[in-house]
Amino acid sequence: MNEIDVAIVGGGAAGLSAALVLSRARRRVVVLDDGTPRNAPASHMHGYLSRDGMPPSELLALGRDEVSHYDGQVVNSVVTDVVPDGTDGFWVLLDGGDRIRARRLLVTTGLKDELPDIPGLANRWARDVLHCPYCHGHEVRDQQLGVIGGSPGAVRYAQIVRQWTDDLVYFTPPGLLTAAERSGLVARAIGIVEGTIERLMVGEDDRLSGVAVADGSVVPRDALFVPPRFVPRSQLLAHLGCATDDDGWVTADSTGRTSVAGVWAAGNVIDPRAQVITAAGAGSAAAIAINADLVDDDVRRALTGYHHGYTA
């Protein structure tokens, strides 16, 4: 493959949105995707204007088609490494041994969710064990809901989930609640269960039926919200030397430009709170900034060629 303008690592909403903008700007673009989208377990996505309720896989399929329509390439492949090429571009190394030279790099590899180690929880993820009330709260409104606490900010998270139901239980290990937190939960009629969760109970209809606690009790619940630990899939960015904040997240400006020249990032890989529509917008903003940077480079190249031709 000849030199391309932009290699985009990650084919989710952010990466495809960027590819669409760049391919329409007549840039040579390739999207490299490993086929493991974060929202793959979810049957529907919500909060995306004009696409509310659409299966995530359908959005990605439509996005791929749109990018291809403008001659952008989408390749199913795992990127094993990215290394500077010694000038102002990058070699993108693929798992099959191929490599691509790109003038600019956009990383949109997202994040992974680290879940509490509770038997039965992981295999119900994105079904009736959920993480984003804005994405899924309306679908389980007015049901018996629970929040698994114990992590920083979990009480505040439970207060937000309370917006969707009058029947909410907050599960927490003993001894963690402050007096102010306890008062706030009680004031809004949020039940408190302090103890170790043994496992999740599932009914014959393959739906969550309750939460079994170490004291032998079972608290009936229809759905649970879990604030997971977000872990960015930022190994490529780290290897390139991109600056990070105190929590280990790669830092970038409002367009996604990182501290390394020629490298941008967008979506959940730098913003754990970005929803699908937010990630798509970030990809678009990054694409516009990348194209502007390439235009500046095009001018430099043209001037160099002009001066060489003039002196010759």
TrEMBL record:
The keyword Flavoprotein applies. It holds the Pfam family Pyr_redox_2. Keywords: Flavoprotein, Oxidoreductase. SUPFAM superfamilies: FAD/NAD(P)-binding domain (SSF51905). It catalyses: [thioredoxin]-dithiol + NADP(+) = [thioredoxin]-disulfide + NADPH + H(+). Residues 5-280 form the FAD/NAD(P)-binding domain. This is NAD(P)/FAD-dependent oxidoreductase. The lineage of its organism: Bacteria, Bacillati, Actinomycetota, Actinomycetes, Propionibacteriales.
